[in-house]
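The instructor's notes for this session suggest beginning with a concrete chain rather than abstract definitions. Hand out the sequence below and ask the class to guess, before any prediction is shown, which regions might be ordered.
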Amino acid sequence: MRTFKDFTSAYLYLVEEIRDDYDYISSPRGMKVKEKLGVRFEITNPRHRIPYVPARKFKIQYMIAETLWYLSGNNKTKWISNYAPFWKDISDDGITANSAYGARIFGPHPRISSGNLNQWEYVINELRNDPDSRRAMIHIRTPDDSIVGAKDVPCTIALQFFIRDNKLHQIVTMRSSDLVLGISYDVPAFTFLQEIMANELGVELGTYIHVSNSLHVYERHFKMLDEILDKHASATSTLMSHTRGQMDPMPNTLATSELFAFEALVRDCIDVNSIEAALTTIKHLDSYWVDWAYVLAAHRAGKLGFKSEARAMMNGVKEQMRPVRG
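After discussion, reveal the predicted structure:
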């Protein structure tokens, strides 16, 4: 297993592995991929979660929106499709998403123990009762998904948590990881969950281990691998990672409901003045969450066509949260 201090270093390594040392060329569902089986890596500082890889065109706005969507327990595609339209395209029923992980993590779900289990609460209670437990696991994909899902079968199998030396470690196991479209956002989202759980348990943040049973890249992204590994581009990624560094520690108190309410308010805004007025409603929150609100506000401003104002909003957040550009 390869160990990295930050996700950017891990990502560059994975890109090189898939491009130059892949195991197979396969074509699941008729789509050609380069693939490695059983890939495992560790990140020792999970707060260093953002992939500073400009050629990947990573979107901070989507990272925040997806994480907030998970935390809310919402599984409706209408909400998240505002940030990534593909969600409505992969829905099996046109309304909900099977891969809305938050719905399976934070509340009873019909495919998890017949809807009789809140998995987040289970893990918290398990580790409080027995800090050395090996049973603190959240299941995502279930056998039912093999027959119910057609377009959207969850890629994640499970999240497992361990307290060792008063630190919370997480191991994520995935049946399938798209290096370009999936893992670049999965790692930030899962490390956010790890940090939230560490705060709830009152322990330090440990390491993050990611296991991809199939790590792959689709043919349409082969050229992007070359762009990412270009000598100048990779040097820029490394420099950006070192200069921007890790995200600040997350506050112990979440602001999920406040941010969801703010997002609903800002989504109805039709100009910059109304967006700025909406921003005054969240000034009481911790600066960590205020940054999240500004990212959501900038996304709305950009969708309305106010590009310079959106950039100004993003320039007001902490450096780690600003757009990943070369």
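Then share the key points. The chain has a mean pLDDT of 94. The beta strands are 2-4, 24-26, 33-43, 137-139, 156-164, 167-174, 177-178, 204-218.
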